[in-house]
Records
---
Amino acid sequence: MTMARRILLLDMASNAAQTIRYLAEECGWLVEEDRTRKGYLQKVAHGEYALVLLDVSDRSPERFAHCRAVKRALKERPLLLLTDTGEVEERLHGFQAGADDCLSKPYSPRELIYRMRVLLMRTNVSADRPHAPDADQPRHSALLGLKLRIERRGRTLWVDRHCVRLSRRECTLLCCLAERRNRTVSREELRRRVWNAETGPSDRIVDANIRRIREKLRRLSPDLGGLIRTARGQGYCLLDPAVVGG
């Protein structure tokens, strides 16, 4: 049985914390709050929290020192910071103080939950990643250029801090194209390697999976939709985004 993720809300106003608690519990997370700042660092260090959400919108002079202390106690676990304004300098100070992500007020609670989910997913993928690649997991399937990253074990596609999940077929198909990037891979080869079949599924099944991958690429960034090129009558070619990006 999988343990529910524990989330700690630090210094959040009670009405905001109540909204976040409701949405987080819908995701299956357990939420705790602390507004006292008494013994909070020990709580962070030993509480086995998967993520800490820290509100520094009070603009107190020591807010970023507080952020640094929390991040030191968290070590490798993610810290999401809520700031008072959308000013770039404010967010940069937050990142310099160790925050893994920053969100400014006023914010959408749904966006906040999405950012929390992404941070938790990144942490989960990182924990699952082997120190050395598996025999059936080529090195280049884990890192494609500088812009796009495929995590095969977690079946996750990353661009910067944003990600989408892939189905098993989509992930295997994308990794096959990544292994032969900048070269056309025939539909026959894709059927053989992804579906382990010489005949069937039909080309339409291959095309449908490619279409879904393109949609997920566009969801990450509109300019990534064209990375998979169709070689008419032949197959597909994945262009290396490091090359495309120049």
Note: The chain is about 40% helix and 20% strand.
---
Amino acid sequence: MILESLPPSRLAPDEAARWRALVAADPALQSPFLTPDWALAVQRAQGGERSGVRVLRIEGPDGARGYFSARRRGPVAMPAGAPMCDYQGLAIEPGLEVTAREILSALKVDRLDFSHMLADQPAFAPYLRGDDISHGVDLSAGHAAYLAERRRATGLFKDLDKRRRKAERELGPVRFEAFCRSAAAFDKLIAWKRELMSATGQTDLFDAGWPLRLLSDLLQSRDPAFGGVLFTLSLGDRLAAAHLHLRGGRTIHAWIIGHDRELDRYSPGLLLFQDILAWMDGDYAYLDFGPGDYRFKHQFANAGRAVGHGFVGRPSPAMIVRAAQYQVRAVAERLELGEVSALPGKAMRRLDMWRGLK
């Protein structure tokens, strides 16, 4: 077994193509976050080869290949692009086996943290400390078939139709745009996100600098197989909602979403999702909402995949610290004290976000 760690920019073009082919061939891997393009975009946004972003090139004795990306920060590795990264996992050819501890050694770290690891991967499954479902919309049978099934299952679409008609009566035509190139619309989306983070006491992701560079670079991408795509919805002459999603292969990943809070009564963000799904028909097969338990995801979704959070480490101070954090979290969650029980988990997530943004 040969494991080579290198910056994404040094991965040979034929290796990158092989990695993309692995992702495209396996439905469980079809996410833009699991491609070499994501790792390379993060490396660029975070300052180049000194950023600590690394890809692992794994080669078995029979020539089979596997690939994995992460970011080294001292003795600890984390997902490349965290906290902006919604999936982690190995892209690996059938028959090739690698252990999490081999990955640790190749990365030259004592601990690897993960937040949204694909739950069915043998290398990491034993180290999951909690699970979640990443909801999505499978459009492989076509938009019409999806819509018919969802209308039978939920009243969401009937309600959205009413809100759309109400908006048209009161504000003017509802206008949808895909691949919007408006700098003003992008700036408004970022402003909405920052206002929401401030109002809810969340860490402002964009203060770190590199997340905004990453979004801007991805939005400028003209690569047909990977990049950002800005969708907008206007009610009359007013921008009502904007979404910047990540695209890769035949998947659109819902990512940075925002809307005008003064127009909440029309649900412009959900109207925009409705239009995006219709636009995808025939060209894209899956809209991934990513992890997070929100009502609208349940209502739109007809599919999902299991992910988990946890860590793997070898005996070291870094491993002891993480194990202690998870022990405190587990005890608190077992006590079932409502919001108090959730505090250690929230503190861990906030700390991980801060570490990723540095």
Note: Residues 2-133 form a domain with the Aminopeptidase fold (CATH 3.40.630).
